[in-house]
Amino acid sequence: MTEPNDAKTRIELVKHFTTLNTGTIVIAATLFDKFNHPFFRRRLLVWSFVFLINSLTSSVALLMAPDRITLPRNRRLYIWVGVSFVLGILFLWFFTFFNLQAGIS
């Protein structure tokens, strides 16, 4: 049985975040191209993309330097990748919620 701090487990975790970030950015860009009305609260969308791209670039930086994967001091970078992703998703959700509410009324 492998430990959660194993380097292979860390690499797999970063790969999953990279895939989730890329997929979210592509899907969001595709779906928001379909909106007909003007956007409300555009800053939420901007912040969403900022956090998602930040999480993506941090993930790629971890994958490009394999020696960083094994260093315990990079725990903060792993946490930042996850926190950025969650914040990006939350901002995207709020943006979608407010725009759907504006479209309904």
Question: Can I get a quick summary?
Answer:
Helix content is 80%, strand content 0%. With 105 residues, it is mainly α.
Layout of helices and strands:
Blueprint: H1 7-32, H2 42-64, H3 66-70, H4 75-104
Helix pairs in contact: 1-2, 1-4, 2-4
Q: Any key phrases for this structure?
A:
single chain; 105 residues; mainly alpha; 4 helices; 80% helix
Describe what you observe in this structure.
The chain has 105 residues and is mostly helical. Helix content is 80%, strand content 0%. It is built from four helices and no strands. It has helices at 7-32, 42-64, 66-70, 75-104. Helix 1 packs parallel to helix 4 (75-104) and helix 2 runs antiparallel to helix 4. It starts with 6 loop residues before the first helix and ends with a helix.
Instruction: Report the sheet with the most strands, covering strand number, pairing sense and barrel closure.
Output: none
Unreliable segments (pLDDT under 50, ≥5 consecutive)? Answer: none
Number of helices: 4
Structural category: mainly alpha
How many DSSP-defined strands? 0
Radius of gyration: 16 Å
- Give the topology string: H per helix, E per strand: HHHH
| Helix content range | over 70%
- In percent, how much strand structure appears in the residues? under 5%
User: Whole-number average pLDDT?
Assistant: 82
What would the principal axes of the Cα set say about the shape? elongated
CA distance, first residue to last residue: 55 Å
